[in-house]
Amino acid sequence: MTAFVTAESLVFLRGSQRAVDGVSFQLHAGTLTALAGTNGAGKTTLLKLILGLLCPASGTLSVLGGRPGENRRRVGYLPENVSFYDAMTIEEHLTFFGRLKGVAPAAVRRTAERLRLAELAKKTPKDCSKGQRQRLGLAQALLADPDVLLMDEPTTGLDPQTTQALYEILAERASQGCAVLISTHELALVEKHLDQVMMLKDGRLTAGPATLEALRQKAQLPVRVSVPGCGADWAAKIGLPGVTWVKDHFVLSETALVPLVKQLTAAGCFLPAATENLLRGIEGLTAIRKEIITVGICAAASVAMGTIDDKYALSARTKLIGQILIAVATITFGGVRISLFFNHPVICWTISVFWIVFLFNAINFFDNMDGLACGTAAIAFLFFTAAAIVNGQYFVACLGACSAGTAIGFWFFNHSPASIFMGDGGSHLLGYLLAVISARVTYYNPEISASRLTVLIPLFILAVPIFDTFAVVVIRLLNHKPIYVGDHNHISHRFFHMGMTRKRAVLLVHLLCLISGLGAMPLLWGDERSCFILLAQGITILLLLTILQYSGKTAPADNTNPQGNKS
Length: 567
Fold this sequence. Notes:
Layout (H helix, E strand, L loop, with lengths): L2 E12 L2 E12 L3 E5 L6 H9 L6 E6 L11 E4 L11 H11 L4 H10 L15 H13 L5 E5 L7 H16 L3 E6 L2 H4 L5 E6 L2 E7 L1 H8 L3 E3 L6 H7 L5 E3 L2 E4 L4 H10 L6 H15 L1 H24 L3 H19 L10 H22 L5 H19 L3 H21 L8 H18 L16 H5 L1 H16 L12 H7 L4 H19 L7 H22 L18
Parallel strand pairs: 3-7, 3-8, 5-6, 6-7
Antiparallel strand pairs: 1-2, 1-4, 8-9, 10-12, 11-12
Helix pairs in contact: 11-12, 11-16, 12-13, 13-16, 13-18, 14-15, 14-16, 14-20, 15-16, 19-20
């Protein structure tokens, strides 16, 4: 194999301290090498020596057959902290870097398309996410199709998905004949792509260059194995040399691992694969056990409070205090919180409490005709489930799907003519679950979203009940009536007084909810312009809805409710 970089007894002095001390290695064509070590080990200094930005005090260093810096166009470099010109767009940056490196415009366009930068062409770096700026930095490093590619902590601040995508690109470059060197302290993330590893400590090469397997064999570190259902009695039965039982696990050498597995399997100690998967799932649930318990208790408290209200007619103040206490418990003990790109604890706490309390009352207000609240909630649950699946939040998706199934099942008995009425107990539960699930979904994913306006998705999905709640509250305030006293000014009532049957009025509201939810989904992938267009469409629909419902007959002045609730 051709050695693109060769170092012999390399020394670099920083004052009287040896930042690089007697380092020798080779980087061959078609290899991906990790340079591992703690902060201050000398990794960045070594990269700068290869680039020719620093001169060694002693030793020899050859890069592509010459001195460092002589063949700089054949060397690509991505620093740890990438800096760009805020006044230039992504497209202008790529054009500028291409001219500096003598790259044809067609090659620049191919690189942009390969790294999904073409879609960001008109954006400036300051408007991009960390992952998008890293892709731009990688593009400038790859533009000249370098033979040597140096990466200094390239995944700092990146999410796991973007990190894996970056490592896959680097592995692809190595397979095409490039010598890739990555400075990192996260070997576990890049392990499967590595050809060799070098480990630095205090400027000295303590291990490597060698494969991870060779380093493991050299270190002879003990292997710890925990087997579900296996105890000290099993360890005594097996009696393999070099295998000992310590507390709740086996301790053994790597060479003894295969014989141990064979004996355990023969003895019937291993559980079936399905059971093992179930256990892993239980472990995952255990990690969020506190959140699950908190949400479960608070959901039960919501039902209890609503049921008591149905029977004894609690005052508005008492219900509000109960709702606030449930919201505070959910946030404090369950960790359910809305952040909205800033982490000020007071602001985030206030927004989260308001959201939970608001949805308590919004769904309670919306429960004014048979099947209306549970049908609306079911539609919203389905859209939140879809958003959670898109972002890989499968536990939240399962919770949303279960809630949707519950609401749909109840709808068959609650729609007109109803055989079962919901009451405040049911509407409080639906409002609480909608608040929790909508708060737990992550809407902004920089890898699929080009705009932070994705945080508006819950407002789109719940646009109709939110609009109805605000409209009713404003009308009651203008009429100098308490906001907690029910009337016939809801959207469903307006449609009914326009001549529709109650059933058709409810179905029309459900259709509006479906339209607003469908309008929210493109926000997951859209850029800012698309988001603004969808936002304008949503506002237009609400304005038309307002005109439509107030163009008919005026709602009756009485305070009786078709379904008999208090909203």
